[in-house]
Each structure stands twice: as structure tokens, then as C-alpha cells.
């Protein structure tokens, strides 16, 4: 069992609150550039826990 399953119950479900993040456009552009330049591994199967 996971820790979440073993956690004590509080009786109230968690509340989800919307939020906003302000990131400068220059940072977004740099991230896009870096992602496009990334050499992704191809042909290697992803490890999956079973």
C-alpha cells in the first residue's frame, strides 16, 4: 500500500484552488528553444513499474 492509502482520513476532501503564474515571455521562448534543441532518445522502451 502507498503512504496515501495509509494516511489518516480527515473527513473532508482536499480543495482545488485555481492559480496563475507570471512567467516572462523571454523565459517561455528560451524554454521552447531548448525543448526544440533537445535530442530525445528514440527506440528505447520506457521503464514501466508493474
Protein architecture, described:
This protein has 50 residues and is an all-alpha fold. The protein is built from two helices and no strands. It is flat and about 50 Å long. 0% of the residues are buried. The mean pLDDT is 83.
Helical element count? Answer: 2
Question: What is the structural class?
Answer: mainly alpha
State the order of secondary-structure elements, H for helix, E for strand. HH
Main sheet: strands, sense, barrel = none
If you average the pLDDT, what whole number results?
83
Estimated share of beta-strand residues: under 5%
Instruction: Note the overall shape.
Output: flat
What's the N-to-C terminus distance?
Answer: 14 Å
Helix share, percent: 25-40%
How large, in whole angstroms, is the Cα Rg? 20 Å
The low-confidence parts are none
- Counting DSSP E segments of at least 2 residues, the number of strands comes to 0
Q: What would the keywords be for this entry?
A:
34% helix, 0% strand
Short description:
The protein has helices at 3-6, 25-37.
Write the layout of secondary structure elements.
Layout: H1 3-6, H2 25-37
